[in-house]
Write a structure and sequence with these properties.
By secondary structure, this protein is α+β, with helices and mostly antiparallel strands. It has six helices and 22 strands.
Length: 324
């Protein structure tokens, strides 16, 4: 009997860390002259805190650049938190880069080393679609990805571009409560609009579907493959090419990604997409169905998920191990 468990979890594990809290002890940096570096990821909450000690006053001043920071310069920057004997200031970086902060009081920066350079890296976003994305069921009706169930048959492209259907597997991702730092929306000449995380792969190029690019690497004019202009309702036929006409940042709720049992390329919002790199998709095509059958027979699917989702290397290891 087909299981109707909700498709499961784990964008998080596929792609790494979610927004985190980064604490900067401003008092300790004053007392110890450091540490003067910190790291964060776009979307993290970076909180500076200083507490009452010996009546000393501190503030937080953001330097305009590294030269000013190195020189403890007090001009051309921005006062982020005013003079106070205790305080807290939080900042959520929305872009990658290095950002420079000093205490602008007296010689706290120059003599006491009360300064910190925060290096912010881009968020490793999850390869997912927002909850509002839709897929096409085998009967031609459309369904939001947040309503997908394991076992649903959805329209997908095969590696040669033939449109077919494939089965939503228990390795699919469904995190309705999660959100990405941002999504990209890709509009095409075929009137499709696909919203996905920047790391998500899509088939591109002169033939569907084995050449993949991540959404963040796409440019206007690149070729995408679509089921048809209005969303295909037949499973006969082939994906057709169109071109990207616009790329924009957008917001959305939820993180979802159908991973298909036979390694198909799911058609989402009318566009042929790929749940991962071509290596993983190819492995899925050759190995996922028997492995899922095996894990269900042995009650090992939770462990299999953990292995599958923990990264490329562990995925390959999992396949080998489970074939023993
Ligand atoms: Cu200070």
């Amino acid at each position: 009997m087909r299981s109707l468990l909700p498709t499961s979890v784990f964008c998080l594990l596929l792609a790494g860390a979610k927004a985190a809290d980064v604490a900067i002890d401003w008092t300790a940096i004053y007392d110890n002259g450091g540490p003067q570096t910190a790291t964060a990821t776009v979307g993290d909450t970076v909180t500076f805190t200083w507490s009452e000690k010996d009546g000393k006053i501190h503030n937080i001043y953001k330097n305009a650049n590294k030269v000013d920071y190195d020189a403890c310069a007090k001009t051309d920057g921005t006062m982020e938190a005013p003079d106070a004997t205790s305080g807290t200031w939080s900042w959520t970086p929305d872009a990658a880069g290095t950002f420079y902060f000093i205490c602008e009081v007296g010689s706290h920066c120059s003599s006491s080393g009360q300064k910190v350079a925060v290096t912010v890296s881009a968020a490793a976003s999850d390869p997912c679609f927002p909850s509002s994305a839709t897929v096409i069921l085998a009967d031609g009706s459309s369904k939001r990805v947040d309503a997908l169930l394991e076992g649903d048959e959805i329209v997908a492209a095969a590696a040669d571009g033939t449109l077919t259907t494939d089965t939503v597997s228990l390795l699919s991702i469904a995190q309705p409560e999660a959100h990405a730092a941002f999504f990209l929306s890709l509009t095409s000449a075929a009137n499709t609009s696909l919203t996905l995380t920047p790391e998500h792969h899509v088939p591109v190029g002169p033939s569907c579907c084995s050449t993949l690019k991540q959404a963040k690497d796409l440019q206007v004019g690149d070729t995408l493959w679509v089921a048809n202009a209005n969303g295909r309702t037949s499973t006969n036929g082939r994906a057709t090419s169109t071109s990207v006409t616009a790329i924009s940042k957008s917001q959305g709720h939820g993180l979802h990604s159908p991973v298909l049992t036979r390694g198909g390329f799911p058609v989402v919002d009318g566009v042929v997409t790929s749940f991962d790199s071509i290596e993983k998709v190819t492995l899925a095509k050759h190995g996922l169905e028997p492995l899922i059958t095996a894990c269900k027979a042995t009650n090992m699917c939770e462990q299999f998920r953990a292995l599958f989702l923990a990264g490329d290397r562990k995925y390959v290891d999992a396949l080998r191990r489970l074939r023993l």
